[in-house]
Hints:
The complex is a heterotrimer.
Chain A: H1 2-32, H2 39-55, H3 60-86, H4 91-112, E1 127-131, E2 134-137, H5 138-160, H6 162-172, H7 174-179, H8 184-210, H9 221-231, H10 236-257, H11 262-276
Antiparallel strand pairs in A: 1-2
Helix pairs in contact in A: 1-5, 1-6, 1-8, 1-9, 1-10, 2-3, 2-4, 2-8, 3-4, 3-8, 5-6, 6-8, 9-10, 9-11, 10-11
Chain B: H1 2-6, H2 14-30, H3 35-54, H4 58-83, H5 91-107, H6 112-134, H7 139-159, H8 161-164, E1 170-171, E2 177-178, E3 181-182, H9 188-209, H10 212-222, H11 224-229, H12 234-260, E4 262-263, H13 270-283, H14 290-299, H15 301-305, H16 314-327, H17 333-355
Antiparallel strand pairs in B: 1-4, 2-3
Helix pairs in contact in B: 2-17, 3-4, 3-9, 4-9, 4-12, 4-13, 4-14, 5-6, 5-12, 6-12, 9-10, 10-12, 13-14, 13-16
Chain C: H1 3-24, E1 37-43, H2 54-68, E2 77-83, H3 91-101, E3 106-111, H4 113-125, E4 130-133, E5 144-146, H5 151-165, E6 171-176, H6 179-194, E7 201-205, H7 213-222, E8 226-228, H8 234-246, E9 252-256, H9 262-267, E10 276-280, H10 288-300, H11 309-331, H12 339-347, E11 350-351, E12 359-360, E13 370-377, E14 380-389
Parallel strand pairs in C: 1-2, 1-3, 3-4, 4-5, 6-7, 6-8, 8-9, 9-10
Antiparallel strand pairs in C: 10-13, 11-12, 13-14
Helix pairs in contact in C: 2-10, 2-11, 3-4, 5-6, 7-8, 11-12
Amino acid sequence: xxxxxxxxxxGVVVGIVYSLSGAGLVVIFRTSGYISFTQGDIAAVGLFVGxxxxxxxxxxxxTALLVIAVSTLVGGLVGALITVPLEKHGHxxxxxxTIATALIISGLLNLTVxxxxxxxxxxxxxxxxxxxxxxxxxxxxxxxxxSASVFIGLGVxxxxxxxGVAMRAVNDNKLAGELLGVPDRRLKLVSxxxxxxxxxxxxxxxxxxxxxxxxxxxxxxxxxxxxxxxGGFDSIFGALVAGTAIGVMTNLTSTYLDPNLVPTxxxxxxxxxxxxxxxxxxxxxxxxxx
Amino acid sequence: MTTxxxxxxxxxxxxxxxxxxxxxxxATTTGRGRVGARLATLVVACLAIFAFGQSxxxxxxxxxxxxxxxxxxxxxxxxxLGLLGEMNxxxxxxxxxxxxxxxxxxxxxxxxxxxxxxxxxxxxxxAAIVAIxxxxxxxxxxxxxxxxxxYAIPTLAIYMxxxxxxDEGTPAPFDFEIFGQLVSGxxxxxxxxxxxxxxxxxAASLLMLNAAPGRAALMVGESELAGVTNGFNPRVIKVxxxxxxxxxxxxxxxxxxxxxxxxxxxxxxxMLGVWILVGGVVAGARSAWGALLGGLFVGxxxxxxxxxxxxxxxxxxxxxxxxxxxxxxxxxxxxxxERIGLLIKERTFGRKKVDA
Amino acid sequence: MSKKLVxxxxxxxxxxxxxAGCGGGxxxxxxxxxxxxxxxxxSPLSGPAVSASSGIYATKAALDKVNDxxxxxxxxxxxxxxxxxxxxxxxxxxxxxxxETDRVSMLCGxxxxxxxxxxKDYLAARKIPTIVNAGAPTLAGEYSYLVSSPFDxxxxxxxxxxxxxxxxxxxxxxxSDDALGTxxxxxxxxxxxxxxxxxxxxxxxxxxxTDFSSQAIQLKATGADFVxxxxxxxxxxxxxxxxxxxxxxxxxxxxxxxAQNKTLVDVTKGAIDGRAYFATPYITEESETGxxxxxxxxxxxxxxxxxxxxxxxxxxxxxxxVDVLTKAVExxxxxxxxxxxxxxxxxxxxxxxxxxxxIDWSDxxxxxxxxxxxxxxxxxxxxxxxxxxxx
Lengths: 290, 356, 391
């Protein structure tokens, strides 16, 4: 019983991180209709710049802000200069260009910082509270709080603000955004910039746990994909619920079945959800093309 | 308008010629039509690869053989990409299935040919089964579902270590001979075997593309509704296309096992599927002989590049090449080569006729 | 045939001849030409496994040092490293390049069990001997010699240390379902059973996972005071340990040189200081020979972490290669030795020196049969139990 109980609590903690990695993908998907494979690499650039600052004496808060600022910038640049212009050839080339960007960034990182994993600073490892024997550090608490506010903020943004509503509309119909007074292209750039910021934020929670290497944030990407597919592409709330569910499910699979089956179970449940509810558990709209 | 000024239009031959030019252009973009010329190009491309492989060092020859093997997987994946317009990231999965099944049957005492046939049959059947739910998805969902599957393969292989040899992998037959030629590693027999299999499959896909199945698949890919109104069942067509891709992937997997002589889970990471997709995009998804270029991009370029670029940075070059291919319209190198061929033809052949 | 086709044919043939020219250009220079001894290795210099490559730079440092001191009997060593990205499909290609184009006479420290598994038979067929930098016992063969201790022995030694030296009888095992993980587990079980004990739990993990809380919960449930997890690399060991400590489970950890590096200390933020033991056949920076090793590394590979098990392993293999080549040059009367001569030296080679103990390839091409146990104390690896034969 304790086994199950602890599995559930820890599943929720890690699942929230999965949700966060899904959130950035949802933002891009909403305006552009494809997914980005390069968010992990964008985060890595921000994290390495942040680490350099930290090592030369910057405090944690400045480091964190710098990480987010750099990721925002890189995300915006990738969107503005590479991916969004390529949309004129269709969604598939645009999606593929994110793979190209990922290859280029990871190559550059390999050449400059190398492949060794490094430790990355975190908010604080000291214990904040204890839930049923699980010690939650201040970093965990910060992660949950920040994620929660990001999810609430995005939810409000998409449903209340003019730009947010336009962002939802633009993927369905190019004209819709312009009717709302926001040009299509600008919306897309905003979404890339926001997604960049979100991946930097995600990195701040992932890097202290997995240690920072050129691939560490990327390893979470597949969980982010699953979270948004299962949760539904247009639902930020869905990503949150699905991410948490995935965290719990992987834990239970690992405990009661076999750790080597986790990715397979992940794939199978993704396929199953898509067959039963093609738009995800919380999605509403019908989506087509890549 | 300028053309009418430049050229006297009274020439009675010009209208058919222009129509011909138009059909040439259409042929290069759809990959359909001009079957004879395309088959001949395919044979010439295979011969050129053979000549190149034979005249190279054993290391390059090995990379060329592996490239032809990848080309077979690219060819299969191109059907999904070029006809249905879907992003399939699981070609590496079909290769893994074919390779593992082949090694399992061969190590179990089956003859090499029988093992290959059984492995391809089993993998194709599995591909068809997985295709049934997968084809219910579209666009982004297809890409993500196939990505998740590809991601699961290495750990699944470890889980099934009774059949796969786990992390240590499993040896493949390395003493297989056809007509006295050793088919393994960097032997000429292996090169010929891979090229012949590629040529047969490429020719088959070319012929199918130009017959009813190709028309049906193209139509369903462009618009499901158009397919339905023309009396096709889009689901059946899609499952068939995905099964074909699975079949080609499994064939590539068997040849991969023979070439490498050993298979292990780290060889089938999700990047393999990405590379095969990228190979198709760079070379052109609707060109049969272009799949060879895609294969070379995946198999030969990384090895050769190391002589010019520090190994740590090779992925930059790959990324840039992919970006350039996308910037060029995503139609692929093969189409550009064909267009240049057309241009040369128009300039030389076309002019002469006018002058006469 | 249309004109277009002719054009294409010409273009393709030109292209292929041009490419063939590129490919063929390299094979004029061969090892036999000069005084150089040409040897090689493959390693993941790029790709997802790039962090495993530190060992090869240390191997190179050991060889560079000898070259700067004039080489072996006047022969410089040319060490060619090829990148295989840890992909067993690429390994045969780069290995063929090494053997057939670069004409290496031996491989010194190629990395990775799976990549080496892909070329073991090929190298044996070409009679090219290899000193392998990998732990799987199945890699040993007529032409392949292992240096690192077999993990069965490493697992056994840790279990013995827990029971006899630390006086702990509640032992659990965490393992990955692969060759190293399962042999380490079997070794530990063997020793425990000999002492009339049994492990309180054998918990499996997947090395590619990002979350190890399930393993942590199961380990905690065993109530063991000592957890043996020797086959884990530093990043994986660190994640398992962090997950366990997070739920308040703080046992003594039994690890090996595979996890002995800065990454582990960094990832665990020093939480396991004093509570982590490492079985290793290699020396430490703190030992007498270690000072010389550290100085060499500082000069020839300053970017590589000194106090890492993988680096020391790579360096030791470099030293072994030098020793073997020195003996082979002697056997060849001062000439550059052939592969056959190097193989002959290897097949009768034994080592019990400052760097490694218990190598006897005249008997079996297995790794070192002796190891020591280190303790992580104040961020340093200090000797806890001196070198002894593996149980």
